[in-house]
Amino acid sequence: MDSDPQPRYRRILLKLSGEVLAGSVSFGIDSDSIDSVCRQIKEVSDLGLEIAIVIGGGNIFRGLSAPEIGMDRVRADAMGMLATVINSLALQDHLENLGVHTRVMSAVRIDSFVEPYIRRRAVRHLEKGRVVILAAGTGNPYFSTDTAAALRASEVDADVVLKATKVDGVYSDDPLENPNAEFYPYLSYMDVVQRDLKFMDLTAITLCRDSDIPIIVFDMYKSDNLKKAVMGERVGTLISRSDKQ
């Protein structure tokens, strides 16, 4: 009798935008959206995968909005980092209500609420089967949470970066505004640079390229996509050294 199929990856880095938690609301956290996200995470955790998560804070505050409101960028980025801590604590609470053991680790010290990020401790949590939520980006201004995801993936030796979005992969243009935008099932790191695709900043792409970590961009709103991705099924867009798979 055939054995059950096994996950393709051992350790994953899941990058969530703050907007994924907001769902249909314009600000904050939508209960249905966070429930859907956490149930998908639990499903893949139950497969025995080691899961690290980097989450953005755009549903609460974006540092990039600083020039629009006349705010100092460094201070605005600090506010954005704190927004990711709020999202991380919300994610932790919901996951633990589902029976998933988690740890939140922050790149900036907030010891009353979360652990400081220490690479070896994070790896140990992963090895023990805990979901590790990595908050506060890189801890530095001017760096996106995409860059934080690529950096942490490299540090903890993740097999893949899974970038959860609201669309089903990478397109030549915004598919919500341009119905003729071309969908890319596969891309190389250099394709992303040469075509100036904006789904992820170039620092993050370069880090993943240098560490040879593939990236899968997929739609988190389809409830079985995360499981499909970790099982190696074709979903979204795969970015790797070659544009042919």
Looking at this protein, list some descriptive labels:
245 residues; alpha/beta; Carbamate kinase; nine-stranded mixed sheet; two-stranded antiparallel sheet; 8 helices; 11 strands; 36% helix; globular
Q: Mind explaining what this structure looks like?
A:
This protein has 245 residues and is of the alpha/beta class. It has a single domain, classed as Carbamate kinase (3-Layer(aba) Sandwich). Helix content is 36%, strand content 19%. It is built from eight helices and eleven strands. The strands form two sheets. A nine-stranded mixed sheet has the order 4-3-5-2-1-6-10-11-9, with helices on both faces. Strands 7-8 form a two-stranded antiparallel ribbon. Helix 2 crosses helix 3 (73-97) and helix 5 (145-155) packs parallel to helix 7 (202-211). The mean pLDDT is 93.
